[in-house]
Amino acid sequence: MCPLTPPCMVPYKAAPESRGKRGYRKTKTLTANSPNSSIVDRDRRSFFIQKAKLLAKTKMLFKSALLATTLCLSATAAANTNAPVVTDNDDVTYYAQLQPKDNTTVRGAVTILPKPSGVGVLVSAHFWGIPDNEQQLVYHIHQKPVPKDGNCYSTGAHLDPYGRGDATPCDINAPQTCQVGDLSGKHGPIWAPDNEEFTTTYTDWFLSNVEGEPAFFGNLSLVVHAADNSRLACGNFVELK
Ligand SMILES: [Cu+2]
């Protein structure tokens, strides 16, 4: 019958004698075709060879996965530094008013005042003309000022001096992990019932009103987005004197 005839034996790779010069031990290697092997012996040897190969493969896969995880974690740590609390803010106030746009009814302004301690700043936001569609609007400090043509899409991304990026949404319960310019992410979006205005005041610990500091916002812009993230309106911060 077929299982006992040579053509049905599975040929196994020859023992790696040729690798002797690379440091392998020149010993007899178990193969399924070793002479004098009984069928049972050959089956057992074959089983152990396959098992050893599988174990080696599993170890290699585990090492690769471990390496990938380590690289991934170190990349995340490098690109996701928490924002430090700003403790040396000056006694200056900045103000940004949205420039009127034909494509939206949204209007408003954000005033950023100093706190007596110099720790953090006090943000006062007031928006009106909010569409009656019960959808939230979001607002941010963007990394570039609005150019003369008023194009809100020329203001770049959010103020993000610590390289957090946009990939993960801001967690309102961990504002130090958010982009510094993500005001609505850290403090809540704009929302109001029909025909009502939206007003809020809060402390932000991570904005700096000191020129030259990484989290300085005084020469940047305020941008309000629709629910689909399109840019509705924008305006530049100026110092109030
Ligand atoms: Cu924005």
Automatic annotation (TrEMBL):
It is found in: Cell envelope; Secreted. InterPro entries: Cu-only_SOD (IPR053257), SOD-like_Cu/Zn_dom_sf (IPR036423), SOD_Cu_Zn_dom (IPR001424). Keywords: Antioxidant, Secreted. SUPFAM superfamilies: Cu,Zn superoxide dismutase-like. It catalyses: 2 superoxide + 2 H(+) = H2O2 + O2. GO terms for cellular component: extracellular region. Residues 106-229 form the Superoxide dismutase copper/zinc binding domain. Gene3D superfamilies: Superoxide dismutase, copper/zinc binding domain. GO terms for molecular function: metal ion binding; superoxide dismutase activity. PANTHER family: AGAP001623-PA, SUPEROXIDE DISMUTASE COPPER_ZINC BINDING DOMAIN-CONTAINING PROTEIN. This is superoxide dismutase. It comes from Aspergillus kawachii.
